[in-house]
Write a structure and sequence with these properties.
Elements: E1 2-3, E2 15-16, E3 35-36, E4 50-52, E5 55-58, E6 61-63, E7 115-116, E8 142-145, E9 150-151, E10 154-155, E11 168-171, E12 193-194, H1 200-207, E13 212-215, E14 224-226, E15 232-234, H2 237-241, H3 261-267, H4 275-282, E16 291-296, H5 310-316
Antiparallel strand pairs: 1-3, 2-16, 4-5, 5-6, 7-11, 8-11, 9-10, 12-16, 13-16, 14-15
Helix pairs in contact: 3-4
Length: 323
């Protein structure tokens, strides 16, 4: 299994994750090192209505279980946000218990690997996720979003809006070349997020020439939706808007922004008739749409690239469908 490294130690087999400049479109190129190594090597690393978690979406209006309008600056469609007094600067309520499979980056020892914690998952990245909504001020680690979703060119869950998402990886960003990652203070020097389902042209535009977009987490059977023809595929925000999923926090396994709080904060409203809110919901997805830009060496490929995902395995009869 390829193990992702960000410590920039020269290796016979390596890949780059963070570079030293920006592409023509303003997105940063990325370069860091990774390797394939033995298991003993230490890793440095339909009806138009739906219910959106605790957000009721129907008939052109919606209401959330929490008031977001008082803590949101929905100015000019930029999606910029301000924190309310009773939440952390990233939007997570103080003392909120982390979901199973999550880690608080602030709890990690400062002298750990660049990507933490171990163990690693099948794709070479840490199995444990972090929530960018967590407040990790003072920690050596930043919970860096791996979700490149955007609306009209504005990132929804990365960069300046890193704190709106629910999925990321703990990265010790000081290990990376200064100025080589994202420039936004909210995600300073975080790796560049990308979508593994993009075409080659879009990957090149965001990641840079010769770079690949490698998925950071496998999807699970619970992430799959069955179409009318019986085929299973990864769920998307369109399924929410079409009423085929409620996108509640526990509805799928790796879905972004379960419950839609991040999108409501981005838009400054939870009115489904608002184009910012509905547009953000449409861009939601599961783990097959999240990754980091990598520059692979000759002969290397992203771990798991070309292999069937959970939805494919359901269609093949290899694993059962979700209940």
């Amino acid at each position: 299994m390829m193990k992702i490294r960000l410590d920039l130690v020269p290796l016979a087999l390596s890949l780059s994750l963070l570079g030293t400049g920006c592409g023509d479109d303003g997105s940063a190129d990325t370069d860091a090192d990774a390797s394939t190594s033995s298991a003993t090597e230490t890793m440095q690393p339909g009806d138009g209505s739906s219910t959106l978690g605790n957000t009721s979406v129907a008939g052109g209006s919606s209401s959330t279980g929490s008031d977001v309008s008082g803590s949101t600056a929905g100015t000019g469609g930029t999606g910029s946000t301000e924190s309310s007094a009773d939440t952390t600067s990233a939007g997570e309520t103080e003392g909120e218990e982390l979901p199973e499979g999550y880690v608080n980056c602030g709890d990690l020892p400062d002298d750990g690997p660049t990507l933490a914690p171990e163990p690693l998952g099948p794709l070479g990245f840490p199995e444990a996720a972090c929530s960018p909504r967590s407040n990790n001020d003072g920690s050596a680690y930043t919970c860096c979003s791996d979700d490149p979703a955007s609306l009209d060119g504005t990132p929804l869950f990365s960069g300046a809006n890193n704190g709106l998402g629910t999925w990321g990886l703990c990265v010790r960003t000081d290990d990376l070349p200064a100025g080589s990652g994202l420039p936004d203070p909210e995600a300073a020097n975080c790796p560049i997020p990308c979508n593994p389902t993009w075409g080659e042209g879009e990957v090149t535009s965001v990641c840079g020439a010769g770079r690949s977009c490698c998925q950071t987490r496998e999807i699970q059977p619970e992430d799959c939706i069955q179409d009318d023809d019986g085929t299973w595929r990864p769920a998307t925000g369109n399924d929410l808007l079409n009423g085929d999923t409620n996108w509640a926090p526990d509805r799928h396994a790796t879905h972004q922004d379960g419950g839609g709080q991040g999108c409501a904060t981005f838009a400054g409203t939870s009115d489904i008739g608002n184009p910012l809110f509905s547009g953000c919901l449409q861009q939601l997805g599961v783990a097959d749409q999240r990754g980091y830009c990598l520059a692979l060496n000759a002969g290397q490929a992203c771990p798991g690239a070309g292999e069937p995902n959970a939805c494919d395995l359901i269609n093949m009869g290899t694993i059962p469908p979700p209940r």
